[in-house]
């Protein structure tokens, strides 16, 4: 930030030069070196304010946060007085599942608001559109590893979001998920030992069995 200070003090010394004319059009703190900038880096587009209001800028944003910041997720959180809901920029049924459904599944591993809500709710609402099954089935080979990562996550909330998403997916794609379930069941059985998850996982397994036929 030192060059910003240097430039602003330079302006005060020469009040009548042309620099002052351009001052309103290019506010200094935002662009310390106008014109000479090389191709903008993708990271320049990510305004830290939109990523993390609490100021942890040292960690690069996750892929989901980066896509969200660039407007790549076609839904936004609407703050309601009673409960939050999603607002879609276009009808969810017109949104291509590839890659959005996979991106939303990736977002299940987020631990920050609003990504947590947007990814969970977006995943659910996308699966509710007409024809979701045939759009989601071809994506299973990519969705399953992403859900597995959520189920293997150390954060309890992330795990439960992954579990809910898995059940929602199973309800839509039915038996098509069966071949992939073996990759996920180890993560579920690991948490089954934990009392606080036992009931949720048992119910989820019953639903998976109900939607997909027998889960061995």
UniProtKB/TrEMBL annotation:
Signal peptide: none annotated. It comes from Thinocorus orbignyianus. Gene3D superfamilies: Leucine-rich Repeat Variant. It comes from the Eukaryota. Residues 1-21 have a biased composition (Polar residues). This is PACRL protein. Residues 1-58 are annotated as: Disordered. The gene is Pacrgl. Pfam families: ParcG. Residues 26-41 have a biased composition (Pro residues).
């Amino acid at each position: 930030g030192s060059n910003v200070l240097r430039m602003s003090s330079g302006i005060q010394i020469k009040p009548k030069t042309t620099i002052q004319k351009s001052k309103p059009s290019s506010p200094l703190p935002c662009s310390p070196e106008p014109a000479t900038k090389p191709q903008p880096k993708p990271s320049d587009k990510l305004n830290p304010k939109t990523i993390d209001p609490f100021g942890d800028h040292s960690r690069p944003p996750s892929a989901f946060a980066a896509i969200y910041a660039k407007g790549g997720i076609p839904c936004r959180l609407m703050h309601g007085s009673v409960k939050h809901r999603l607002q879609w920029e276009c009808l969810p049924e017109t949104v291509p599942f590839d890659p959005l459904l996979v991106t939303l599944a990736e977002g299940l591993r987020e631990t920050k608001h609003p990504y947590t809500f947007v990814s969970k709710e977006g995943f659910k609402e996308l699966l509710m559109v007409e024809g979701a099954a045939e759009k989601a089935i071809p994506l299973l080979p990519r969705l399953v590893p992403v859900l597995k990562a959520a189920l293997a996550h150390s954060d309890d909330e992330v795990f439960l979001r992954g579990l809910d998403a898995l059940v929602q997916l199973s309800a839509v794609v039915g038996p098509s998920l069966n071949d992939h379930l073996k990759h996920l069941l180890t993560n579920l059985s690991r948490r089954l030992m934990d009392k606080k998850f036992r009931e949720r996982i048992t119910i989820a397994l019953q639903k998976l069995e109900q939607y997909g036929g027998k889960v061995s």
